[in-house]
Please model this.
Amino acid sequence: MQLAIGNKNYSSWSMRPWVLMRELGMAFEEINIRFDSFDADSQFKQQLTHLGAATGKVPLLIDDSAKHNGRSLLVYDSLAITERLFEHNARVWPSDTAMRALARSACAEMHSSFGQLRSLCPMNIEADLADQGALLWRDNAGLRADVARLERLWADLMGTGKGPMLCGAFSAVDAFFAPVVMRINSYALPVSKTAQAYCERVTQLSSVQAWIDGALAEQDFLDFEEPYRFKP
Ligand SMILES: N[C@@H](CCC(=O)N[C@@H](CS)C(=O)NCC(=O)O)C(=O)O
Model:
């Protein structure tokens, strides 16, 4: 199995399946596709085209256990990749079926919502954006509403699943929220004690630590991914 991913410092969508596979001990080869730009003629797009990726986006799972059109099965979009991984490893989702439904709902919500948090606070693991975070928090009711929703969701899941992670043991739902935790850390967003404790547990996961180490080692700063640091 191979997983194509973007820059570890910036690519929140890539982080999700990478952390999931790594934390569950699933063997895979990583294909790094640097974000030079997202223009049609960028190296990024050309490398993805070479792999056969129709969407031109990462993450992309190349699953050699099945064939499609004479080549390894290509699975794109983090939700679909997660479901494909579940077919290889039952621990991707919680074993309890009701808990599994709640975990899937939370992942779908992460995938389709939290727009203000995602657009105002793009993932940037290396940066200390606490000052910027304080301004964003002061000026954006939508950001505060997203974080309030996040805290309610997390508290509800942890109350039902009895911890230590969102739905009991580590599962895809924690991998989906790992980039959100990275944002809370970088922008020092004020969250409840319960949410902060969960953020610390996620940050300490060995898979997350390995991703952070990779992000810090990159030292590859891209102005189109840096709305704050590179502003005059
Ligand atoms: N919904 C997709 C989003 C994937 C996505 O937008 N990935 C970004 C990198 S984090 C990308 O490849 N962007 C390239 C582009 O927008 O052209 C998923 O869940 O995998």
Q: What stands out?
A: The chain has ten helices and four strands. The mean pLDDT is 97. The chain has two domains: 2-90, 93-223. Residues 163 and 169 are 7 Å apart (CA to CA).
